[in-house]
Amino acid sequence: MLKKILIANRGEIALRVHRACQEMGIRTVAVHSTADASAMHVRLADESVCIGPPLARDSYLNVAAILSAAAITGADAIHPGYGFLSENARFAEMVEAHGLTFIGPTADHIHMMGDKIAAKDAMRKLNVPLVPGSPGALESFEEAREIAERIKYPVLIKAAAGGGGRGMKVARSAEELEEAWQVARTEAKAAFGNDAVYMEKYLDRPRHIELQILADTHGNVVHFGERDCSLQRRHQKLVEEAGSPALTAAERNALGAQVTAGLRQLGYRNAGTLEFLYQDGQFAFIEMNTRLQVEHPVTEMVCGVDLVREQIRIAAGEKLGYGQEDVQFNGHAIECRVTAEDPESFAPSPGRVNTYHAPGGLGVRVDSALYSGYAVPPHYDSLVAKLIVHAPSRPQAIARMQRALDEMVVDGIKTTLPLHRRIMADAEFQSGDYTIHWLERFVARG
pTM of the predicted model, to two decimals? Predict the structure, then answer.
């Protein structure tokens, strides 16, 4: 088993990884920027190393500084968390080249799935269903126009190296296509240094469904069911559920069997999440995330598994030790992402937290690095807490989340807590009848 793990991240996810390590008897090394010197993950880790000034490019994205921190502290592995370097194939490669264990997939699989076109091509060969569209990167506007006419409008132009909604434009007619083509390529180049784009049929009322898997180095692949991540604003998730109110157990099992068979053939290892659009009973693969997801706690709550612990065990060469038949799905879980933003304008709201009170009680979990007196820095992602609840049924989970949201106090900065209270009280949300477009309309009507 690994003895000491450097956590190449910050905030709640760094704290989450530290807690798993602590329970496994593994020592931890926290890395931090000067802005995070008083952060909770730094306070609780066994050792800490400052790796640079506040800007992420000078600290949390500084590969040389992170590897140096691992060397001077004698760490034997690195856990990347999510974001930052977690899906950087070159980083994974360098970690292994320095004799350290990278707690994640191989660099080859990170590279493959990080390129949306390569990922779709791999899934096509594994017979995983895809959204109709271009077979690869579009070579010209003329090709884009021909494919759009074949698959019919509306269509979606997407950055091959994209994510988070950047480099993504909808064209609802031939007249809109040229502008969407040009804008998507410009945004992709600016955001990712790569202007390659591809095309998909734009689905008008899909849900966003993702499937959590774990794979060890001995050929065992298991899925842990689906998460419904359809409540999004500008392609950013705000609320997630496990399982989906739209799926049946038969649909889950069929998708899970198809995916696990494909990934076993691919030789994938560690944690991964496959994301699909789901409409009219049909799944269509859109991308795979080769890391731990922000929303992983809802899966942990319904399956009773510690995904971070399993990541570490797999990286240490251990077998999963259980099969698909051993995975049980119990009850329903919901996660609300609480961000330091104005709940109406979504303007960032960094600053000092005067008072922080986390809710509690049966079936309530809070993943957060906040504390009273903590100053939320302006340099990073606005996520400050994840509030997760679990209950025997979805209506009970919603009621529990409403109670927990009412208990939670974050004073001194603006947060999205009021928005989450509105969502949980909405009759349409409570019915479970929503798509990826629902939240935009809900926010717009105030």
Answer: 0.92
